Amino acid sequence: MIIVKIGGSVFSDKKGEPENFDRETVGDIAGEIANFYPREDFIIVHGGGSFGHPQAKEYGIREGLPEDWETARYRRIGFTLTHQAMLRANAKFIEAFVEKGLPAFSLSTSSVFITENGDVSYGDLEVVERLLELKFIPVLFGDVSIDLAKGIDILSGDQIITYLAKMLEPDKVIFLMDVDGIYEGKPGEGELIQSLSRTEIDSLLGRLQCGPAGTDVTGGICNKLREAKKIAEHSEVWFVNGKIPGRLSGAIRGDGFGTRIPKTS
Ligand code: ATP
Ligand code: IP8
Fold first, then answer.
1. pLDDT by residue (tens digit) across 6-21?
2. Where are the domains of the chain?
3. Which residues pair with 176 in a beta bridge?
4. Which pTM value belongs to this model?
5. Residue of 110, 120, 152, 154 to mutate, ligand 2, most atoms within 8 A of C-beta
6. How far lies 21's CA from each of 153, 164, 188, in Å?
7. Is the Cβ atom of 3 under 6 angstroms away from ligand 1?
């Protein structure tokens, strides 16, 4: 089984208009997956991009539900609106996949997982497993979450994948981004790292000076790398460019161009 994360940077321009969607790129990605399905089982997880992140930031969802009634009321509205924005993104994904003949089936992340400070503390994967047995392609997404510590929070697609990898032990996890993989420094400045070991991730995080990232309420590349370190205990991990046709197929076959982190328990 292969888990593919379609990053927000791939399907939308996060600095562009709210809710912009690159239908052509998503169609190409679905087309590549269609060449491997049904021999391979897939789970798709997509990020927030220009859909979830601006709303989540505007309403301060990551700050949780406070005592003060008026602020809490405002956040509850924001919680609902952020979720609706993610449902609109998700509907576009499902359409693009179905158009390529793929039985992509949407699962609302906020109805499957409960978090504690943004990490999954409970997840019911029964439906995901049944869907896979029946040869569907479950599609999850970064979403709002009910949170045991803060009342409400955001659950990143990257955190969902860590949980799925731990529970389902996939053969591979592939992160699609708008750059060729993980760079030693800023993309375009530092060199592309083609092979990275789990144990090298902490020192890389230090060199990248990981801090807050623009409108990304879930921490951008730094969060991704921290999660990749956990995922690589259960699965091989790839970071490839989802905007360039063929790169996803290469990662699926195992001879791809990007950054590969071997499974190391
Ligand atoms: P989302 O979280 O919305 O799903 P995503 O999964 O596409 O988005 P981002 O969180 O946007 O991923 O992270 C990818 C971005 O990180 C790239 O657009 C890239 O420009 C930026 N980035 C910053 N530093 C690095 C680095 N050292 N290596 C790779 N990408 C980097
Ligand atoms: O883009 C964030 O998910 P991510 C989802 O995968 C929201 O980090 C709602 C901002």
1. 999 999 998 899 999 9
2. 2-261
3. 6, 240
4. 0.95
5. 154
6. 24, 26, 24
7. no
Nearest ligand by distance to the CA of 176: 1
**Per residue in 121-145, pLDDT tens?**
999 999 999 999 999 999 999 999 9
- CATH number among 3.40.1190.20, 1.20.1250.20, 3.40.50.1100, 3.40.1160.10, domain 2-261: 3.40.1160.10
Strands 42-46 and 143-147: unpaired
HEC readout, the chain:
CEEEEECHHHHCCCCCCCCCCCHHHHHHHHHHHHCCCCCCCEEEEECCHHHHHHHHHHCCHHHCCCCCHHHHHHHHHHHHHHHHHHHHHHHHHHHHHHHCCCCEEECCHHHHEEEECCEEEEECCHHHHHHHHCCCEEEEECEEEEECCCEEEEECHHHHHHHHHHHHCCCEEEEEECCCCEECCCCCCCCEECECCHHHHHHHHHHCCCCCECCECCCHHHHHHHHHHHHCCCCEEEEEECCCCCHHHHHHHCCCCCEEECCCC
Q: Which residues are CB-neighbours of 143 under 8 A, at least 6 positions away?
A: 52, 82, 83, 86, 108, 109, 110, 154, 155
239 CA closest ligand 1 atom index? 29
Centre of ligand 2 from the C-alpha of residue 166, in Å: 20
Pick the ligand that lies closest to the CA of residue 144: 2
